[in-house]
Design goal:
The chain is mainly alpha-helical. The chain is about 45% helix and about 10% strand.
Length: about 120
Amino acid sequence: MDHALFLAARAAVLADLRARHQDTAAAVSMLEDALSQRQWWAEQWPEGAVYVAGLVAQDVQDALLEGTARWPTCHRCGEGVPVHTLHIHPDLGGPDPVWVCEQAGTTVCALGRLDRCD
């Protein structure tokens, strides 16, 4: 198991949480839980390790949504458009995951780069 992939995934998701001011203790705990679960998953399917970062981002997004927080919200669409979230593309999360605004149908930026894309 390449632990560097997990450290990179953690850093990317944490950077995007921070970019949207969602890097709370609860969110970081959700991130750690997602990493732990995906480590088991990657041990079962070693070829899937390249998908870990995107899948972890999706896991954290789902966990936050269960707690009623939308993350990350789209900052690209203008006023008059309801608040909506970005989603990881491709759906499996990799190997090069990007945040996509499905409302506009456009790529916003790479995972871990939300602070540079708005």
